[in-house]
Amino acid sequence: MHPLIDISPVDTSTHPPTPTSPPSNSATRIRDNQRRSRARRKEYILELEAKVRAYEQDGVSASAEIQAAARKVVDENEVLREELIWLRAENERLRWGGGLEE
Length: 102
Fold this sequence. Notes:
Layout: H1 25-97
């Protein structure tokens, strides 16, 4: 036997696996966990994107409802202003005109 060549069996528990050796259970488990984690993250992102779309749609609907309510208030204010002008004129007519016309 040559003194520089060691032909004793190699203890694989203390040496890392070589590229040609099959993956260990630990490596397989880690890879599977990473794959599941990526899948969960992707699903979570899809759920968040769907919620954002729903909230945006609700915001558009709410905005349209608010605009319609504002338009209604503006229209009602215009009618009330016209009625106020008429009532003031009628009040002045009654005050200075001496009462109802016969």
